[in-house]
Amino acid sequence: MVGPYRGLFSMPGVKGFVIAGFVGRMPMSMLGIGIVLLIEELTGSYATAGAVAATVSVSFAVAAPLSGRLVDRFGQARVVVPLTLAHGATLTGLMLCAEFGAPRWTLFATGVAVGATALSLGSLVRARWSHLLAGSSRLHTAFSFESVADEMIFVAGPALVTALATMINPYAGLVVALVSTIVGTLAFALQRRTEPPIRPRERRSGTPITIPGVALMSAVFLAMGAVFGSVDLVTVAFAEEHGAKPAAGLLLAAFAGGSLVSGLWYGARSWKISLRARFVRALGTFAVGIIPIMLVDDVRIMAGVLFLAGLSISPTVITGYSLTEQLVPAHLLTEGMAWISTAVGFGVALGAWAGGRLTDAFGASNAYGFSFACALLAVTIGAAGHVWLRTPVARQES
Question: Where does the Major facilitator superfamily (MFS) profile domain lie (predicted)?
């Protein structure tokens, strides 16, 4: 299984941007949960905590395509450095507002700034792979590796931030996320040898969201993001209801762990069926996998159920990014992938907000029903509009 991945790192400069990109995006699995844990500790309300986390996600979702377009126009380094420094300052501001008991609206105001300055670093990493491996079959393996790296982050991040916030200090998890963001992202920006070139003649033409396949993909990932956002928040509440709040990070790590295992397997295989067929099948498996979560009432069993539910995440995400890479022109690639991040961001915001409301009103186990409804919506949209996902290669074969 390791063989197909080994050859990816023989190219000059690859190890540098991969390691820096991994460190820099560690906070993507820590920020939302860290904010939920901090705000819930201060207010005692999951609804308020979910609303603040949702504000950050919405702000990020709105800003991500713009930052992606700026990267396509001016290059990664010129955009990454100032945004990273601004993000560090705004996240510090959010924690200071919480520490000194500032009016509640300041948490939302600083949350907007935190989200607006956050980078979709995964899109930038994948854009580098697309530049280095353009037209190569190894691009599938590279995207698979990046999804596995994402899932490693989602295995380690929730457990780490939960342990820091519950056992040391409510702010500790966010402080670690802040340091990881600044160190990793600035180190990534310094890896200039692998940075994709700017294409000035093409840079002003079009926007990826007008491509039907990208619009459909964004709708699917909006629904999937709602699953992720609701499962994250509801699982924290589920663990607390069962007297095991510190175990919330481990439960979420199990969810990501299933995706990590399937990502390794998926990327090591050569596939004969089309990308869009794989995408729809993975979505269907994802929806079915959510069902048992609604039926479990034991923390230990929940860990196993979440692991099984996570098995279809990586294949869906890997195939989604591969489809996007083929659907979007090269000069709009970063922005195109940022639209996927935007969709997920909006979905996470919706899921966190709805999950918090439903948990407060009906309890955690019942709130998982929202997660299943969103998963079912994702597969319905993907299956109904799969014809729009025909890539240029697929059209030649049909």
Answer: 213-398
